From TrEMBL, chain A:
<dbReference type="InterPro" id="IPR001851">
    <property type="entry name" value="ABC_transp_permease"/>
</dbReference>
<feature type="transmembrane region" description="Helical">
    <location>
        <begin position="222"/>
        <end position="241"/>
    </location>
</feature>
<keyword id="KW-0812">Transmembrane</keyword>
<dbReference type="GO" id="GO:0022857">
    <property type="term" value="F:transmembrane transporter activity"/>
</dbReference>
<feature type="transmembrane region" description="Helical">
    <location>
        <begin position="52"/>
        <end position="72"/>
    </location>
</feature>
<keyword id="KW-0997">Cell inner membrane</keyword>
<feature type="transmembrane region" description="Helical">
    <location>
        <begin position="262"/>
        <end position="289"/>
    </location>
</feature>
<feature type="transmembrane region" description="Helical">
    <location>
        <begin position="22"/>
        <end position="40"/>
    </location>
</feature>
<feature type="transmembrane region" description="Helical">
    <location>
        <begin position="166"/>
        <end position="190"/>
    </location>
</feature>
Automatic annotation (TrEMBL), chain B:
<keyword id="KW-0472">Membrane</keyword>
<keyword id="KW-0813">Transport</keyword>
<keyword id="KW-0067">ATP-binding</keyword>
<dbReference type="GO" id="GO:0016887">
    <property type="term" value="F:ATP hydrolysis activity"/>
</dbReference>
<keyword id="KW-0547">Nucleotide-binding</keyword>
<dbReference type="InterPro" id="IPR017871">
    <property type="entry name" value="ABC_transporter-like_CS"/>
</dbReference>
<dbReference type="InterPro" id="IPR003593">
    <property type="entry name" value="AAA+_ATPase"/>
</dbReference>
<dbReference type="InterPro" id="IPR003439">
    <property type="entry name" value="ABC_transporter-like_ATP-bd"/>
</dbReference>
<keyword id="KW-1278">Translocase</keyword>
Length: 325, 495
């Protein structure tokens, strides 16, 4: 319990300074938590909090990459499919071809990153709009993922793989949650304190100003799509561990959930403002909302309606606040 | 002046936004067949006044009369119906539609519930002919030159039977040829009895075309000249409200050491070819010419922003021909671009961030940076350049002059050897320009080789030691300061 509190403070210590522009979503998250605390008797417990963390791992890892893409004024519609492809590559290599996990995981991640490289080059070298380039990649990678097993799922991973998502080390962290937290922290630090991260804001603010200021816009753009696809692959590893199986239909419309988390977190779709701090809040809002609605036994269909309403609410509130100031 | 009755008369027009009064009772008469120049610095109230006349904004007090009858248009539509045509600075044409469709957009001629394409093209053709424009009305607007698009806007106003035209900076994007063509059409409209309100920052052309000059300052009419032929200095003094002792600082004497040399430079798009010149340490080198002469393309190529097909750029005798802005910046050759808002600053990012973007390498240690460090770095330059703003403030909130200082500051932190300024005072108030000129000359004084591109003749003449004149992508000649005046420059520019 003590470790738990300490961990949360450490986490908040990094999140809070990068909340510029995300105070609105943070207030929303707090209000939501307060409401659920009083509306249900199960919400406020360590056990439930850990459940929420477990449930947001896939979305969380993916949304960090999406934030960087949206920050430079781009979009990546392929992440859901790339995730499925990475999972199928992992399954094929390990279960069918007998490649050990220690090698199969890096290869699956490399396959994912390769998709980002192709998308990035299409966008920068051939001037294909990001929306079209990643729409095409979405279709291609989904098809490839299905081709590996002709649409069949793969099971039979080593037992420890699934344990990564189940065993709570120190009674607290599953390895999958730890992966997400590491991605959050590295993403935050990179975006706020690294040369390469600050440059993303300049590109999203005005790509021509950035180019004339001596920033290598093309290289940074390709890199961002590679990282986004790599993280989509990593979220695929997390999901594979949680499900203990892989299937090519995984991750359909996950790209839209990731975009929703980024937008709820206050990053502008036109680029240049926002950041990973806000996205973490956005991911938590979606996670807490789903968890809370389940606790309140709201039907899954109604949940979709409510999440849609929250997106509208978050964005209009932000726009309204900006206009007033 | 004339005994005819005015088309439009304004009496005591006031406008307030909340507690802020932007117009303090303006009187103005426009007679048929005259061109009245409306001049003033940014924020003097010109746009508010023309928006009131064109029905976009409602006055808080005062009266307007149109052809002797009370006039109070509720919206632009009502003003149009009366015969007021407003042509905005940014063209508002739909590129993918035909000329005829653009002319009649929103008020298509109909016949039994269907679009009467024949009548539409016929009437559009008549409007185009009246302006001496020889294009087919069914052609798409896309691909027409800016000058022709401008004329189509005017044709659009004329098919409304406009008696009064308001032209807001119509020549801002026009070349010399196109400007002259526009002026011929304005003369023609005058002779047909159309009244014209002409807003422009180009004072030379005001003298050429207007019959009367009205100068506004701080929301009031401060002076009126009954003729267009007024010395520019007199107009400027009326605009800024004080006498200008000194617009341009004295130039330092350049050294003999050549910093930058350009040899046989050509562009792949042929926008300039075979350009040769050199700039010495501590020299301000001006580049003059008409719009479309290839000046911007040339300096963008020198600074790596645009491609080069052949030729060399040498720095201290060593070839440094850049392939990208990164190359040029690494060699200390930097550009303050023509369009501040689209190329110079990120408007919705802070001043500190804007300065930081060009200096992240310097600010970061092993690739690590923080907002605090960027802020500290920027504050220093903000102070040194007298930027009126705080580091955390968005660049978009600054005046044009202060934005330009931010663009300069971001480069000067890198101690460049060559600074290229393209239209350094475009859109900047006359009163604020002299501080930009001071900065330019200060650069030369500390040994930088400076290149200034400008369409404003007085400006190039005022700050340059030597002036290269370009015409149609070629270098027409290089004039020494002693030989350069508006006549000699214009002679070369119009070859």
């Amino acid at each position: 319990m003590v470790a738990d509190v300490k961990e949360r403070q450490g986490f908040a210590g990094i999140v809070l300074p990068s909340l510029r522009g995300a105070t609105g979503p943070l207030i929303g998250l707090i209000v939501l938590c307060l409401f659920l605390t009083f509306a249900t008797d199960k919400f406020l417990s360590v056990r439930n909090f850990l459940n929420v963390l477990d449930q947001i791992t896939v979305l969380g890892v993916m949304a960090v990459g999406m934030t960087m893409v949206i920050l430079i004024g781009g979009i990546d519609l392929a992440v859901g499919s790339v995730m499925a492809l990475a999972m199928m590559v992992l399954g094929y290599l390990n279960v069918v071809a007998g490649v050990p996990m220690a090698l199969a995981i890096p290869l699956a991640l490399a396959a994912a990153a390769l998709n980002g490289l192709i998308a990035g080059l299409l966008i920068t070298r051939f001037n294909v709009p990001a929306f079209i380039a990643t729409l095409a990649m979405m279709s291609i990678t989904r098809g490839l993922a299905n081709m590996i097993t002709d649409g069949q799922q793969i099971i039979g991973f080593p037992a420890w793989f699934n344990m990564m998502a189940i065993v709570r080390f120190g009674g607290f962290l599953t390895l999958t949650v730890a992966v997400m937290i590491v991605v959050f922290i590295v993403g935050l630090l990179y975006q706020r304190y690294r040369h390469g991260g600050r440059v993303l804001y300049a590109i999203g603010g005005n790509a021509e100003v950035a180019r004339l200021a001596g920033i290598n816009v093309q290289r940074a753009t390709v890199l961002v799509y590679v990282v986004c696809s790599f993280l989509a692959g990593l979220s695929g590893m997390v999901l594979a561990a949680r499900l203990d199986s892989v299937q090519p239909s995984s991750g359909v419309s996950y790209e839209l959930d990731a975009i929703a988390a980024v937008v709820i977190g206050g990053t502008s779709l036109s680029g240049g403002t926002g950041g990973i701090g806000g996205t973490i809040i956005g991911v938590l809002i979606i996670g807490v909302l789903r968890n809370g609605l389940n606790l309140l036994s709201v039907s899954p269909f109604m949940q979709q309606v409510i999440i849609g309403a929250v997106i509208v609410l978050a964005v209009t509130a932000e726009t309204y606040r900006k206009r007033k100031s | 002046m004339t005994n005819r009755s005015p088309i439009l008369s304004l009496r005591g027009i006031q406008k307030s936004y909340g507690p802020v009064k932007v117009l303090h009772g303006v009187d103005l008469d426009i007679y048929p067949g005259e061109v009245v120049a409306l001049l003033g610095e940014n924020g003097a109230g010109k746009s508010t006044l023309s928006n009131i006349i064109s029905g976009t904004v409602q006055p808080s007090a005062g009266e307007m009369a149109w052809l002797g009858k009370p006039y109070s248009p509720a919206d632009p539509r009502a003003a149009m119906d009366e015969g007021v045509g407003m042509i905005h600075q940014e063209l508002k044409l739909l590129p993918k539609l035909s000329i005829a469709e653009n002319v009649f957009v929103g008020r298509y001629p109909m016949k039994s519930g269907r679009l009467d394409r024949g009548a539409m093209e016929e009437r559009a053709r008549a409007g185009l002919q009246r302006l001496g424009l020889d294009v087919s009305p069914d052609r798409l607007v896309e691909g027409l030159s800016t000058g022709r698009q401008q004329l189509i806007e005017i044709a659009k106003a004329l098919t409304l039977n406009a008696r009064l035209l308001i032209l807001d900076e119509p020549t801002a994007a026009l070349g010399g040829e196109e400007t002259q063509a526009l002026f011929r059409q304005i003369e023609r409209l005058k002779s047909e009895g159309v009244g014209i309100i002409y807003i422009s920052h180009r004072l030379e052309e005001i003298r050429q075309i207007t019959d009367r000059i009205v100068v506004m300052r701080d929301g009031a009419k401060v002076q009126e000249f009954g003729t267009g032929d007024v010395p520019i200095r007199t107009i400027v003094e009326a605009m800024v409200g004080r006498s200008l002792e000194r617009m341009f600082p004295t130039l330092p004497v350049p050294t003999d050491e050549v910093t930058l040399e350009v040899r046989g430079l050509s562009s792949p798009s042929k926008s300039f070819s075979d350009i040769n010149f050199s700039v010495r340490r501590g020299e301000v080198f001006g580049i003059a010419g008409l719009m479309g002469a290839g000046r911007t393309e040339l300096v963008r190529a020198i600074t790596g922003a645009d491609p080069i097909s052949s030729g060399d750029v040498l720095l201290h005798g060593k070839p440094v021909t850049p392939r990208s802005p990164i190359d040029a910046i690494r060699n200390g050759i930097v550009l303050v671009p023509e369009d501040r808002k689209l190329q110079g600053v990120v408007l919705d990012h802070s001043i500190a961030e804007n300065i930081g973007y060009a200096n992240l390498g310097e600010i970061s240690r092993n690739g690590w940076v923080s907002s605090r460090r960027i802020r500290e770095f920027a504050e220093d330059y903000i102070k040194r350049f007298g930027v009126k703003g705080r580091g955390g403030q968005n660049a978009g909130e600054l005046s044009g002059g202060n934005q330009q200082k931010v663009v300069l500051a971001k480069w000067l932190a890198r101690k460049p050897q060559v600074v290229v300024l393209d239209e350094p005072t475009r859109g900047i108030d006359v009163g604020a320009r002299s501080s930009i000129y001071d900065l330019i000359v200060d650069l030369a004084r500390v040994g930088v080789a400076v290149i200034v591109v400008s369409s404003d003749l007085e400006e190039v003449l005022g700050v340059s030691s030597r002036i290269m004149v370009m015409a149609q992508g070629k270098q027409a000649g290089i004039l020494n300061r002693e030989d350069a005046n508006d006549v000699s420059v214009m002679e070369l520019a119009t070859i």
